[in-house]
Sequence to fold (157 residues):
Amino acid sequence: MWRLQISLFTILFAMIFVEASVLPFIWADLRVDFFIGMIIGQIICIPFSQGFPFVILSALILQAFSGARIGLIPFAYILVFLFLDTVKNLVYFENIYTQMVLGFICYLVLTGIFLIFADTPALGGKALPLVFGAVLSGAISPAMISIVCRLQTVYDS
Fold:
């Protein structure tokens, strides 16, 4: 269990590095959320008793690297995790197209939550980077899910 969690946190820090330094270098307004794929992967492959604490701790770490209000990012990611964990019995998450759509929708929902609770006015010309970031988050979600599931099978055996 500990090796799995350490590996997941290593991937989390690699994601933070890419999101904070590489993507803004390419396009300053672009935000791609790799963590959504990890959340979906946690729901598919890892039991709730291990996945939920990881999401809480990861969201707190992500909070430290953002400029958002205190508690907003953990609230949003925990809300998404609990919603997806509730819906997992209704929707077949193992399908790659479903994973892409879930990544896209979760990105838009998280952005909506951030806009509502941060009292931010309308997007103001940032709709194109938002949609492009949602598409890229949906496209990267199956890869992140695959990584999480692969780690679970390696460390479970």
Q: What stands out?
A: The helical segments are 2-26, 35-45, 48-64, 72-87, 96-117, 127-156. The chain has six helices and no strands.
